[in-house]
Write a structure and sequence with these properties.
Blueprint: E1 12-16, H1 22-35, E2 48-63, E3 70-78, E4 84-89, E5 96-100, E6 104-112, E7 121-125, E8 129-136, H2 139-150
Antiparallel strand pairs: 1-2, 2-7, 2-8, 3-6, 3-8, 4-5, 4-7
Length: 153
């Protein structure tokens, strides 16, 4: 179900890896050209790269990524007429916030450095959705990319 549980395994359904798809490979190439980051040769300026494709009715159950110790920027792409969400629980208030998917690209940033900062979250989509995640071990590197994303480039 969609109930939060302890730190057990993340439950996946109908998901794959976006960097294995033509669209994901194209995004990575464009991303590298724009940022100067190299996503594939092992000498990255960041802690890691993850990707997911969500097929219709795909989801990630409630989980908390506090074991990564990273600052995260997530890019998501949804086709027309999206029907899904990213949902998280505020650590301080316990309030659950749901951010509905929208057509095209969106970007979110998250801090997952420890249990105090990482938030419980879940993802669901009724239609195809792609997420590409870049993680940084250093706040300054994370902030540099975040500032680039928010610039006119």
């Amino acid at each position: 179900g969609n109930e939060r549980s302890g730190s057990g395994p993340i439950k996946y359904k109908k998901n794959g890896f976006a960097d294995k798809t033509p669209g994901g490979k194209y995004f990575i190439k464009c991303f590298e050209d724009l940022t100067g980051l190299d996503m594939g040769d092992g000498s990255q300026d960041f802690a890691g790269f993850r990707s997911s494709t969500y097929n219709p009715n795909g989801y990630l159950g409630w989980h908390k990524d506090d074991h990564y110790g990273v600052y995260t920027i997530m890019f998501s792409y949804c086709v027309d007429n999206p029907n899904g969400f990213y949902r998280w629980v505020d650590n301080h208030t316990g309030e659950i916030t749901t951010l509905p998917d929208k057509s095209g690209w969106s970007c979110k940033s998250m801090i997952m450095i420890d249990d105090e900062h990482a938030e419980w979250h879940t993802i669901y989509t009724a239609i195809p959705r792609c997420s590409l995640v870049v993680t940084f071990g250093e706040y300054e590197d994370f902030l540099n990319l975040k500032n680039l994303i928010q610039s006119d480039k």
